[in-house]
Specification:
The protein has a single domain, classed as Na+/H+ antiporter like fold. The chain is 78% helix and 0% strand. It is built from 14 helices and no strands. Helix 2 runs parallel beside helix 8.
């Protein structure tokens, strides 16, 4: 239990600081937008690059199947989310619902849970699993806009997303090249780049705190958040049936990470698309609170 509490402290402290800054007027709520823009254009690309450039290739037999499992898993979730978003209660917020169901905190929280539940080898596989998170997010967001906003300039909106995502995709490609060709980057270069990359997670969570609103649609959230867990686990199970070459530890990592709460990156994407910030922030907050119960149960049965 003490390990679980310690695991959540780095997650909740930035959120609490953000909320206190908002509630006291120390940081206006309007600051959340530039913080997310900094994360999207600077911190996240550098986090992606440094993670890819230092990817552990000693587990080559697992790298490819684990990495390819993520876009398949997200694809199943995306299709499910599109179906759920057509329910009458979600008519006005279809894209918000798609993001809440599709995007999970597989990186920041997922890595911590994998490390505690399955040790260093589990953590290594969890990092591999998250490799294609941002490229997959961009692709499925692009498709979502084409489908949901087809009568509202969906193509132009989707192309705007692709342009905004160029720094993340560029960082991903360059990082993969550095890793595959075993290029040694000077420490004087990698150290500051890594430091900037490490800003991403706490800044995103601080932004969540700035955006917290307890005016969440409780009826909708009481339906969509438990459904997200069911759909996430089902999508993981289907993905594992289709992907060959995964060892037992990799399969357990995928199942565990599939049960993580709504990802704070949904706020980043929602900000890009000018969606309902309060709705998404409420989903992130309530889902992360729900994880205080679901993550210990996940570790008990799958760890």
């Amino acid at each position: 239990m003490s390990e679980t509490v310690l695991m959540f402290l780095p997650i909740y402290l930035p959120i609490m600081l953000g909320y206190l800054a908002q509630a006291t007027g120390y940081f206006p709520v309007d600051y959340a937008h530039p913080i997310r823009q900094f994360c999207l254009k600077v911190a996240i690309p550098l986090m992606v690059f440094t993670n890819m450039a230092t990817l552990d290739t000693s587990l080559l037999a697992q790298v490819l199947p684990v990495t390819l499992t993520l876009p398949l898993w997200m694809g199943f979730l995306w299709l499910s989310a599109l179906g759920v978003s057509r329910l009458p209660m979600f008519t006005e917020r279809r894209l918000e619902v798609v993001l809440v169901i599709m995007l999970s905190n597989i990186g920041y929280i997922g890595w911590a849970v994998s490390d505690i539940g399955l040790g260093p080898q589990g953590l290594a596989r969890s990092i591999m699993f998250a490799t294609l998170l941002w490229p997959s997010t961009i692709v499925y967001t692009f498709l979502s806009q084409l489908i949901v906003r087809r009568s509202e300039g969906g193509l132009s909106s989707a192309l705007r997303t692709m342009r905004i995502a160029v720094p993340v995709l560029t960082a991903f490609i360059f990082g993969i090249v550095v890793s595959l060709f075993d290029i040694t980057m000077p420490g004087a270069v990698m150290t500051p780049l890594t430091a900037f990359g490490r800003m991403a997670s706490p800044l995103i969570l601080f932004g969540v705190g700035l955006s917290i609103s307890f005016k969440a649609r409780w009826r909708e959230m009481s339906f969509i958040l438990p459904l997200k867990l069911i759909l996430g686990f089902t999508a993981a199970w289907l993905s594992l049936l289709l992907v060959d070459g995964l060892d037992e530890l990799s399969r357990r990592v995928v199942l565990i990470v599939s049960l993580m709460p709504v990802g704070a990156n949904s706020l980043i994407v929602g900000d890009m698309l000018d969606l309902d910030e309060g709705y998404i922030a409420g989903a992130v907050t309530l889902s992360t609170l729900l994880a205080l119960l679901t993550i210990p149960l996940t570790l008990l049965f799958l760890g």
